[in-house]
Write a structure and sequence with these properties.
Structural class of chain B: mainly beta
Helix content of chain B: under 10%
Oligomer: heterodimer
Number of strands of chain B: 11
Radius of gyration of chain B: 14 Å
Largest interface: A-B, 25 and 21 residues
Distance between the termini of chain A: 36 Å
Order of helices and strands of chain A: EEEEEEEEEEE
Distance between the termini of chain B: 40 Å
Order of helices and strands of chain B: EEEEEEEEEEE
Shape of chain B: globular
Largest sheet of chain B: 7 strands, mixed
Chain lengths: 107, 123
């Protein structure tokens, strides 16, 4: 199985900050990586596919990038609505696997 | 607008069985691979199973293989998850989710999600 390791597990930041979340795959996944946002008590929301392609309707302050097997989600200017938990997910092979999540909280 | 509504989550005893349902609307159901994803209380996400749009392909997580069975009724726009030999570690919110693109095999992202249904397995 492909292991997805996310870091940090918690991130404290302020409105307007630029933040990055990292997800490392245990083997090559050829950019088959997605990102999701989840707020307490609600279902996850799909943000990014193929490592860097923004889903329609997702604000442009969100972006994804990749270097080898290390993937990054960046929020360029954190907004109040962005405080949530973020998950990466690989879809290179089965079983489909998620990272452990990064909780973005208010500093 | 895509609308997915799960149901069937209850408290069940360890070793018992349960069938979850997911009612789909707002899209051509028989064109999309569908998934079950679960979230243990206070924990992260775990993919459980998928079934292709044409019922030709199913996949399962190792943790549920041999105990859970995914199915669908394309005439009624319903997705199902039959859960047998339930254990405490199956306690979770179960979400159904739709794939991003129609009629795509292999790999998947979870484009649209239901609100989830809570399954509690008591010992």
């Amino acid at each position: 199985d492909i292991q997805m390791t996310q870091s940090p597990s918690t991130l404290s930041a302020s409105v307007g900050d630029r933040i990055t979340i990292t997800c490392r795959a245990s083997q090559t996944i050829n950019n088959w990586l997605a990102w999701y946002q989840q707020k307490p008590g609600t279902a996850p929301k799909f943000l990014i596919f193929k490592a860097s392609s923004l889903e329609s309707g997702v604000p442009s302050r969100f972006s994804g990038s990749v270097s080898g097997t290390e993937f990054t989600l960046t929020i360029s200017s954190l907004q109040p609505d962005d405080f949530a938990t973020y998950y990466c997910q690989q879809y290179h092979s089965y079983p489909l696997t998620f990272g452990g999540g990064t909780k973005v909280e208010i500093k | 607008e895509v609308h997915l509504v799960e149901s069937g989550g209850v408290v069940v005893q360890s070793g018992g069985s349960l069938r979850l349902s997911c009612a789909a609307s707002g899209f051509t159901f028989n064109d999309y691979t569908m998934h079950w994803v679960r979230q243990l209380p206070g924990k992260g996400l775990e993919w459980v199973s998928l079934i292709s749009w044409d019922v030709d392909t199913t996949h399962y997580a190792d943790s549920v293989k041999g105990r859970f069975t995914v199915s669908r009724d394309n005439s009624k726009n319903f997705l199902y998850l039959q859960m047998d030999s339930l254990a405490a570690e199956d306690t979770a919110v179960y979400y159904c989710a739709r794939d991003r693109l129609p009629q795509v095999r292999g790999g998947a992202v979870f484009h649209s999600w239901g609100q989830g249904t809570l399954v509690t397995v008591s010992s």
